[in-house]
Amino acid sequence: MTARIIDGKAVAAELRAAVAGRVATLGYRPGLVVVLVGDDPASAVYVRNKDRAAHGAGFESRTIRLPAATSEAELLAVIAGLNDDPQTDGILVQLPLPRHIATAAIIRAIDPAKDVDGFHPENVAALALGAPRLVPCTPRGVMRLLEVSGTPVAGRRAVVLGRSNIVGRPMAALLLSADATVTIAHSRTRDIAAECRRAEILIAAVGRAEMVKAEWIGPGSTVIDVGINRTEAGTLVGDVDYQAAREVAGAITPVPGGVGPMTIACLLENTLDAAIARRSC
Ligand SMILES: Nc1nc(=O)c2c([nH]1)NC[C@@H]1CN(c3ccc(C(=O)N[C@@H](CCC(=O)O)C(=O)O)cc3)C=[N+]21
After folding, report:
1. What is the pTM of this model?
2. What is the ipTM, given to two decimal places?
């Protein structure tokens, strides 16, 4: 059996078009500001893609670029200014930050109503309590891919590989809210292959190139590959050994062209949600 390919690029394009259609009816341009500290080349690519998508959907979008030597106090001052700016609906501080800046303090300083990454403790708590407000973009995009691929979630065994605050934990919370039976597997899990093989839905989010082998995959299962790893040869690969996994899975996302474009589309969706919520109260 060869898996169906879940075309994240196409689904993301549809989602961006739907967001653009809603933005056009608003009478104002939702404002998104990305704050980039330092000059990591991978971050620069992502920020450029996001900026293009945001403009394409009718948003006001800008990137504030700060030098790597920016102090925590200076960054907090920039965030305070954006919190106070009525034209700014969404704030995204690109991660990772330079080591001398305490990431948790920065995330806590963002107005939760403008936290389009969904990383602020208030938004994390809302999701954990089953009453989500702004939800992290990548997990939100994964849920959409499960939906459009016709993968049933309620009652199914879902395994999330990875427990990061950005993907693994919020992913597990969303799947649980959708009534899946959720397992979080990680570096300390005793038999990780066996846990994965039991999954009807496998979300790979560990950040290790092609770590998930064909033998780890349940026949017919839906495999969502969140990993984006650059090989020494410069090509992008996921956390799943894609060519081999395709022969076992029922449906699978490619890398690139899977989850990545959905993350950006969901960032626009979150910014639109934030704008509507803020400006209607
Ligand atoms: N506060 C914060 N929020 C983030 O959401 C965030 C972040 N920091 N730091 C960096 C990571 C990375 N990230 C990506 C999003 C989309 C693609 C993407 O669109 N990838 C395409 C193309 C990749 C390419 O060609 O380079 C694809 O997978 O098809 C990649 C990476 C968001 N991140």
Report:
1. 0.97
2. 0.97
